[in-house]
Design a protein that fits this description.
Layout (H helix, E strand, L loop, with lengths): L3 E7 L3 H12 L6 E8 L5 H11 L3 E6 L4 H11 L4 E4 L5 E2 L3 H12 L3 E9 L6 E3 L11 E2 L7 H4 L7 E4 H6 L13 H12 L3 E12 L11 H17 L2 H24 L3 H20 L10 H12 L1 H6 L1 H11 E8 L2 E8 L2 E6 L2
Length: about 350
């Protein structure tokens, strides 16, 4: 049995794939299997994967018809034979000792999953470290998310900066949503791992290099529809267990509001008008059922929530301010300081500055 099964879901990614694969096959942890799922690529992705598999018998390539990210990941999970499961996106790459360090800590602590900080980089810039835990309170100790639910607010959402015990994934039947053509299907996986885990560990060192594109699926006009689908998927999972719904309903609706909000303000005005009533009715009903805890929101989001629920027209009229807010938290711009030009990225409220020239 390999120590870690590393899943790499691929679709038309020939430009970056070799850099990704090189970082995985050269891991200092040698006892791994690498499962590459080719989701019906029409470029050279499949060919590159097959070439690497011929040179390294740890690589298993699964070619399938295009059916989406969620389906690819579920196939990867079904074929994983390792003690732990890791995920690497094919346009990213990882430090060569990532899986050795994460595996060593996982064995030492026997937790359900171990995660770490990560690097953020763009095409033309050096990279910087992004902390996984915003307030730093969860680093280097065992945490039980069931008991300390503030992890849902203070730990960033990603699925790829850690490894998960395979028995934990299998026992809890943690699966990806398989909506064809949609995005955000990692949201459901992330949410499930936190509600089912009884022990997690976060390392305050970065190993994963995340390639940030200014234009990606998060800016797609279909994003609001996709995120609705994903949270319906999570809701249906929670409804299967009354105890889980009762325990995590406030965290679920907090996460739902934040994600709905960010996707809504990225829509053009026409799409906003089309979706405003749905956005309002969704949270009006949640508010009526007393399943929303406003204390989880800061003052800004608390104000937006109140407007959405009680005065959606005013909420819509204030969107110019919201868009300015969005640009502050998710933007790329140049800044000049003492004849030095910096590229500044704001992503999810974190300001990262790179020296440009």
């Amino acid at each position: 049995m390999p120590k870690v099964s590393i899943l790499i879901p691929c679709y038309n990614i020939e430009k970056y794939l070799k850099e990704c694969l090189d970082s995985v096959v050269n891991q200092t942890l040698k006892d791994i299997e690498i499962i590459c799922i080719d989701d019906g690529s029409i470029d050279n992705t499949g060919k590159i994967l097959d070439e690497y598999a011929k040179k390294d018998n740890r690589i298993k390539v699964i070619h399938k018809e295009n059916s989406g990210y969620g389906a690819s990941m579920n196939i990867g999970i079904d074929n994983a034979s390792g003690e732990y499961i890791g995920i690497v996106e094919p346009d990213d790459y990882v430090e060569l000792d990532m899986f050795e360090i994460l595996y060593t800590k996982a064995i030492e602590t026997n937790v359900d999953f171990v995660k770490s900080d990560f690097f953020l980089f763009t095409e033309d810039l050096i990279q910087n470290v992004v902390p996984l835990n915003v307030n730093g309170t969860y680093y280097n100790k065992i945490i039980n998310p069931y008991e300390d639910k503030t992890v849902f607010i203070n730990v960033k959402m990603n699925t790829w900066s850690g490894i998960y015990k395979k028995d934990f994934i299998k026992t809890n039947n943690i699966r990806y949503n398989e909506t064809p053509g949609a995005r955000y299907q990692d949201q459901g996986f992330w949410f499930q791992t936190f509600i089912y885990a009884k022990s997690i560990y976060i390392i305050n060192n970065p190993f994963y290099h995340y390639r940030f594109f200014k234009t990606n699926s998060t800016n797609n006009p279909n994003g609001f529809t996709w995120i609705q689908s994903e949270y319906q998927f999570i809701y249906e999972l929670l409804q299967k267990s009354p105890n889980l719904w009762k325990h995590f309903k406030y965290e679920y609706n907090y996460s739902k509001f934040i994600n709905f909000f960010f996707n809504f303000i990225k829509l053009d005005k026409k799409k906003q008008k089309e979706n405003l009533n749905l956005f309002h009715k969704t949270f009006k009903e949640i508010h009526k059922n007393n399943t929303f805890d406003k204390s989880l929101l800061d003052s800004y989001f608390g104000e937006q929530y109140q407007l959405l629920v009680n005065n959606p027209s005013k909420f819509y009229r204030n969107l110019n301010g919201c868009l300015s807010f969005y640009q502050k938290i998710f933007s790329i711009r140049n800044e000049k300081e003492k004849d030095i030009i910096y590229k500044v990225i704001m992503i999810l409220g974190i300001k990262i500055k790179f020296r440009k020239y």
